[in-house]
Design brief:
membrane; 7 helices; transmembrane; mainly alpha; DoxX; DoxX family membrane protein; globular
């Protein structure tokens, strides 16, 4: 039984567009941080309202340069991979991990201070929504529709039929 699902052009395009937009967001955030020499995650981590000891450890003098470098590197990697449509499952997992860390540092839970947010949230914020969108990207093979993996996918199909 063929389990391949067929999507309409609009559905496929919407999934690819979602991947590209999220990729652009990650890439932009990485580039901005990379070219802003004064940027550091220290303030964000030190103001964490949940799992404070973990986030303060990440912001400690011995860890902050590693934390900043890994954050920038992960943002750039996820953004580039999603835009190119290459290793999108890996990029999605890394992106979800980053977003969940951002979410857990300042969760919109009742009774927790929200700090400088872009609105009044309750339980769900933009980090959690973007993580859910990346989960959708993880589940759907958008890079075989549009991306570098499409080139490899076509070669595999030709080899299988040879």
């Amino acid at each position: 039984m063929d389990q391949t699902l067929k999507y309409s052009t609009a559905q496929s395009s919407a999934l690819v567009l979602l991947r590209l937009l999220i990729g652009w967001h990650f890439l932009y955030e990485g580039v901005i941080k990379l070219y802003s020499p004064a940027w550091t995650a220290k303030g964000y981590l030190m103001s964490a309202t949940y799992l404070e000891s973990f986030f303060r450890w990440m912001a400690s003098e011995s860890m902050i340069s590693i934390t900043d470098t890994l954050n920038i590197g992960a943002l750039l990697l996820v953004g580039i991979l999603l835009i190119l449509g290459y290793k999108t499952k890996l990029a999605s997992i890394i992106g979800i991990g980053l977003l969940l860390l951002y979410f857990l540092a300042h969760p919109p839970f009742p009774g927790y201070p929200q700090g400088a947010t872009e609105g009044s949230y309750w339980l769900i914020n933009k980090n959690l929504i973007e993580a859910a969108a990346l989960f959708v990207i993880f589940l759907f093979p958008t890079s075989t529709l549009f991306g570098l993996e499409r080139l490899f996918h076509k070669k595999e199909i030709k080899t299988a039929h040879s």
